[in-house]
Amino acid sequence: MKKIFVVLLAMLMLVNMFALTACDGDDHTHSYGSWSVTSNATCTTDGSRSKSCSCGDIITETIPATGHNMVGGVCTDCGATE
Ligand SMILES: [Zn+2]
Ligand SMILES: [Zn+2]
Hints:
By secondary structure, the protein is an alpha+beta fold. The chain has one domain. About 25% of the residues lie in helices and about 25% in strands. It has one helix at about 1-25, and strands spanning about 35-40, 45-50, 60-65, 70, 75. Strands 1-2-3 form a three-stranded antiparallel beta sheet, with no helix packed on it. Strands 4-5 form a two-stranded antiparallel sheet. Strand 4 and strand 5 form a beta hairpin. It is elongated, with a radius of gyration of 22 Å. About 0% of the residues are buried. Bound molecules: zinc ion (2 copies).
């Protein structure tokens, strides 16, 4: 039983540490990794990408729809003929 209590206490402290880090907005300079695409943009639909800091902060950005790439009346990307 005592072991479980110690583990719980350790987890609680960890959570507190994360909470403190997240609130530490003044001193902390966000260091975001590279963008990772969460959904690809298509000809007609916007995509999105995000990158995150070690503190848990996440930036999400919209990738604008690429638009059709019409060649000879047909889109080379999706095959649309509009
Ligand atoms: Zn940060
Ligand atoms: Zn297209």
